[in-house]
Amino acid sequence: MSRRHKNCQYCGAELPESLLYTKAEIEALNREFTDAQEERKVREKAAEAEEIEKAEKEATQRGTIIGQMFRK
Q: What is the CA radius of gyration of the chain?
C-alpha cells in the first residue's frame, strides 16, 4: 500500500482519506527526496574529483621516477 495513491496498489480498493498523505506531506516528502538526490550527486562528483586527483598525482609521481631513472 502506498499512502500517496488513492487506491490500494494490491487490490485496487479505494483507501480512506485518513490513511492518505496530505498534500503538504507529499510536498515535504518530494522535497526530501529531491534534496537527497542532489546530495548524492554532490558526493558522487566529489568522489570522482578525488579519484581523478589521486590518479593525476600517481601519474606525476611515476613520471618523476621515470625521469630520475633516465637522468642517471
A: 26
Mapped onto helix, strand or coil, the DSSP state of residue 7 is strand
pLDDT given at position 45:
97
- Predicted confidence band of residue 35 (pLDDT cuts 50, 70, 90): very high
User: Domain limits of the chain?
Assistant: 17-71
State the DSSP H helix or E strand holding residue 67, giving kind and residue range, or none if neither: helix 23-71
Dihedral sign, Cα of residue 25, residue 26, residue 31, residue 37: positive
Cβ–Cβ < 8 Å for 30, 37: no
Compute the distance between CA of residue 67 and CA of residue 6 in angstroms, rounded to an integer.
70
